[in-house]
Prior knowledge:
Layout: E1 10-14, H1 21-36, E2 59-60, H2 62-72, E3 75-80, H3 86-95, H4 99-108, E4 109-114, E5 122-124, E6 127-129, H5 131-139, E7 148-152, E8 162-165, H6 170-183, E9 192-196
Parallel strand pairs: 2-4, 3-4
Antiparallel strand pairs: 1-9, 3-7, 5-6, 7-8
Helix pairs in contact: 4-6
Amino acid sequence: MESSRTGKNDLLFTTFDTVRPMHLxxxxxxxxxxxxxxxxxxxNSEKAIAPxxxxxxxxxxxxxxxxxxxxxxxxLLVNVSTTSCYGCKLMFKYTYTxxxxxxxxxxxxxxxxxxxxxxxxxxLNGSKVTxxxxxxxxxxxxxxxYPSSIFWFHPENEEKHSVHSGYMEPPLYLKLLAAARAIRxxxxxxxxxxxxxxxxxxxxx
Length: 205
């Protein structure tokens, strides 16, 4: 089951919680420069997708990927998918075969594939947990949906994860990845990343 959200194709940065006043001006200036960089990006989601046949994303198990992300100081991206999820199949057929997505993920992220219905155990905070327990930990209070891209900005710390559910075409997914990279230095200040996007009801590219 895929969760849906309605809204405009806009990246919204919200939740300033307890940001110090002295940081506010710097943050607003940064966001203005960052958002203005999107002006040159195409908004045409029907643009032809060119799958890459020779290059692939490096996927890790959760335990291995978490350790690598901590060691290399990178964002941990957890893809939560199931074998029966139609949107999950679209992500792997179109989005994760797009060369720009492949290059960005392999360079700046550590990618984990997690299927909560595979019966195995995981290590979390020094304890063994079930797939259902790990899933609950990753989503916390966010709505459960497949596929989901979950960003753990600082995997060496306990922090709120940024959850984004539903199929996304490559141009929009690249914007999400760019936004995740940009907001990482400010996540400890109470900022969170949200993406409101209108998705056609048929869900196909």
